[in-house]
Every structure is written in structure tokens, then in C-alpha cells.
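ugh ok fine here u go
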Amino acid sequence: MKLRSILTAVLALLLATGCNGQNKQEVKSSNENNMSKSIVIFFSHAGDNYSVGIIDTGNTKIVADYISEITGADQFEIVTHKYDGMAYTPLIELAKKEAAAGELPPYEGDAPDLSGYDTVFIGGPVWWGTYPQIMFTLFKDINLDGKTVIPFTTHEGSGLASCASDVRKAFPKAKVTGEFSIYGHEVRGGKAKVEKWLKSL
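structure:
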């Protein structure tokens, strides 16, 4: 009887330890899922940029990378080759025409599935007072109802311009908050500024 009691106690202890280990794994998995509930959607233009010259990585992508590094957010980059190789002046003239005409240039690939995300960062440069028109093309293809949406911009004097208000118009059933802007020529040394903003959210 004494041996049976000892075996029963040992078995109970092993079962308890196994359950505790399982609970810890579930918490870890849950934490990992929480980190993936944010996504950064952005458009960034490399090549000839105002103030910084010809760059291999667009200003907005650098900010998007900071956000992902600091928060663990996933990313979706809006990609087009329409503007590749264009000098700055022809580019801004084309952007002006697109904005005036309300053109919606196509992007490559499919729109992202955002059903698993609670928070969506939306970022881009300011072209003629708002985001580049290609971003509005994507806006028509995604649903952000009930999500927290955080706009950000890179610019050389425009600040947020009408980007945040245009996001509110595009997604009236989203909670648009925490908007942020940073000079394009500051982003390469601006990680601390981005981190300060993220901590304030």
C-alpha cells in the first residue's frame, strides 16, 4: 500500500508539472499572437528624393522598419514600378496630375488580409498635400472597420498635410488616432524620435 501511495503521488506530481508547462506554452503563444496583431502598410519611394538626393531605401520604408523593429508589427509594402528611375521634378509633376485627376494607379499583387490585425499603421510620403494616389487605390481594397488606424508621414515641410483627415474619410468606421510626421532628411538618424512617438500611443 505504501508503494502504491508513493506511485500515485509521483504520478499526480508529473501530471501537475505537465499541465503547468502546457499553460506556459499557451501564454507564450498568445503573446506571440499579440505581437502579430499590428501591421504597417506603407508606400515608399526610393530614387531621387527632395533634400536627400538619390537613395536606395525610401524614407517611409525606414520609418516602417523602425516601427516593426520596435513593436514587432508585420509589414505590407505597396509596390509599383511606375515611378522607377524618374528624376524628382518629372515625378512631382506626374504626382500632381494624378492627384488632380483623382487617378488610382494599380499596385502589384493582392491586397493584404487584415482580418487578424487590430492595429494598422498607414504611412507614406506627402505628395501634393496628401498620400500618393496609389495608396488610395489600396484603401478601396481593404476594410478597416473597428480597427485602430495610426497614420504617419515623411515630408520636407508639409507635416501631416491632409493625410490623417483623408484616412478618416476613407475609413469612417475605424478609430484613427496617434498620427505622426517626420522630416525625410531626419529619418536615418530618427529612430529615437519614432520610438518616443510609439511609446506615447
